């Protein structure tokens, strides 16, 4: 009887661990390490059916003693892929291509995120659907070509799902205002008039 109980308990534990591991693998985008470069949290947003463009985001950590440079990107899910920057000028968001790429400083971090630098996907033959993976090849000056997969989050997402659980479990009261959920953000860091910003993104049908 004890033997049967032990076997049943072991089977239940094994199944529980399998489910936990599967959930963990699905919840966190896969990190990629090439030489001194580590690429974390690659993600993008689901796009409307007729959207012509989308944005890709990730974090690149350079653990080496020499700087590298992100000079380009490509994806079979877009007719054209570029590195772009979004900035605010006179209350209007402006998007432009970054010529010459972006430096990944030695011992430093380059972060591509909403409202800043990002991978720009243009000419989408099909929409990005929540839950799927988008293959992207990043091109570095020294590290060469690096393949990553971006997890597609819900439309309008500000961060990849469960990003806070990856070593960033910081209480809201100790979190920098720029990373704080809107409900916990001090009034001084909110939009002055509470109105949405205008955006000048040319031919790019995408919201940041």
UniProtKB/TrEMBL annotation:
* Biased composition, class Basic and acidic residues, residue ranges: 170-208
Q: Does the keyword Hydrolase apply?
A: no
Keyword check for Transport: no
Q: Region (Disordered): which ranges?
A: 156-208
Q: Which InterPro entries match?
A: LpqE-like, Lxx211020-like, PCuAC_sf
What Pfam families does the record tag this protein with? PCuAC (PF04314)
Listed SUPFAM superfamilies? DR1885-like metal-binding protein
Keywords, ordered alphabetically: Signal
Signal peptide, first to last residue: 1-27
Quote the protein name from its UniProt record.
Copper(I)-binding protein
Task: State the organism named in the record.
Answer: Breoghania corrubedonensis
């Amino acid at each position: 009887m004890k033997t049967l109980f032990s076997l049943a308990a072991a089977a239940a534990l094994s199944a529980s661990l399998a489910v936990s591991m599967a959930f963990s693998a699905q919840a966190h985008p896969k990190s990629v390490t090439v030489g001194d470069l580590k690429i974390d949290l690659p993600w993008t947003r689901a796009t409307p059916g007729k959207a012509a463009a989308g944005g890709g985001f990730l974090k690149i950590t350079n653990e080496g003693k020499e700087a590298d440079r992100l000079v380009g990107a490509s994806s079979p899910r877009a007719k054209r892929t570029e590195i772009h920057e979004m900035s605010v000028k006179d209350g209007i968001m402006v998007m432009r291509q970054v010529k010459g790429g972006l430096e990944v400083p030695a011992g430093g971090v380059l972060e591509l995120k909403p409202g800043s630098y990002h991978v720009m996907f243009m000419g989408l033959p099909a929409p990005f659907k929540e839950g799927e993976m988008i293959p992207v090849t990043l091109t570095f000056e020294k590290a060469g070509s690096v393949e990553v997969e971006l997890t597609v989050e819900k439309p309008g997402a500000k961060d990849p799902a469960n990003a806070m659980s990856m070593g960033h479990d910081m209480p809201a009261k100790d979190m920098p205002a720029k990373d704080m959920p809107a409900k916990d953000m001090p009034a001084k860091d909110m939009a002055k008039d509470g109105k949405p910003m205008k955006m000048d993104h040319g031919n790019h049908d995408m919201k940041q």
